[in-house]
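hey so u asked for the seq, here:
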Amino acid sequence: MPRPDPSVLPSRPRCWPRGPAALARWSWRWAFLAGLSLALLLGAGAYAVTRYRLGLDFQQHGCLVGASSVFLIDTFASPEDVVQGDLVAFRARGVGVPFFEGKLFVKHAAGVPGDWVTVTPAHTWINGDGLALAGALQRDPASFARHERVPVDQFWMLGETADSFDSRYWGFLPTTQMMGKVYVLF
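ran it, structure tokens below
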């Protein structure tokens, strides 16, 4: 049977490749795109896992008023990224209470290098109220009194409640103990 003249046939748009060679060419393209997408997704996931940590707070009475119990900790944030009032995660070391050693804390960096901190038995200036835990720690509130400047490479950490165990009781936090900046998720 003779072949029809292609110039006479109505033109059809080619939506999909025809023939085994064209199909093989498209298969390789799709495989390449799928592999590239997977590599990008895994790379972004590996970066996120390296940079961020998830923090969960299961306390019935926390030191952050109205804060949720799920935090995102940016471990790539450096002390230079912290401004007064930022939430900071750190491991407690040398705070004077064995129960808290090594525990993860989240507090506000109420005082940054150069700020003045004044603590009296009645009040704390920078961001906080009094020394509500002095009795529980079996110490005279006057023993915590101080008026000093936050040194370089240290922070003055405070919670938002009067009974928060924070810098009023254990002093300045070395920036080397900082794990990262904290963001409240929900």
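Helices lie at 19-51, 167-170. The first helix runs from residue 19 to 51.
lmk if thats what u needed
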